[in-house]
Every structure is written in structure tokens, then in C-alpha cells.
């Protein structure tokens, strides 16, 4: 899951266009999809985030919640 392309593949069948953040922005921020619903995990620090809301920036949330992440 260290490559963005591999992370992107995890979103292909289960990520909803109704979620307030895009699969592309999550994969770029180091996350891949694990479910249920909108739960994602970082491929580098294993931090998980879910319950995304409109206006969330995955990169900013990643840095805020997991400041020690090597990503």
C-alpha cells in the first residue's frame, strides 16, 4: 500500500461518490480504504480516520491527527 496507485485500487468497488471527500484525495494523503462506510487507514502510520465531513482536507487531517507519521 506504499504506492498511491495501490491505495487507489482499494477504493474502486466500495467508495461512494456521496462521501464528502474523494478517493483520490485520500490516496494522495497516504490512506487506503478498509471500511466499513468511510473508514480509511494510513499505509505508513496505520492511523485510521472515519466520519469525514464536508470541507475536510485529508492531508491536513492526517497531519493534525498523526503528526509523527513518516508520510
UniProtKB/TrEMBL annotation:
Name of the protein in its database record: Uncharacterized protein
One GO process term, biological-process aspect: positive regulation of protein ubiquitination
InterPro entries for the chain: BIR_rpt (IPR001370), IAP (IPR050784)
Organism: Capitella teleta
Superkingdom of origin: Eukaryota
Annotated GO CC locations: cytoplasm; nucleus
PANTHER family: DEATH-ASSOCIATED INHIBITOR OF APOPTOSIS 2 (PTHR10044:SF139), INHIBITOR OF APOPTOSIS (PTHR10044)
Pfam families xref list: BIR
Amino acid at each position: 500500500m506504499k504506492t498511491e496507485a495501490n491505495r487507489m485500487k482499494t477504493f474502486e468497488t466500495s467508495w461512494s461518490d456521496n462521501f464528502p471527500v474523494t478517493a483520490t484525495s485520500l490516496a494522495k494523503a497516504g490512506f487506503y480504504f478498509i471500511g466499513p462506510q468511510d473508514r480509511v487507514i494510513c499505509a505508513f502510520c496505520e492511523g485510521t480516520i472515519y466520519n469525514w465531513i464536508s470541507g475536510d482536507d485529508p492531508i491536513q487531517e492526517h497531519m493534525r491527527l498523526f503528526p509523527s507519521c513518516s508520510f
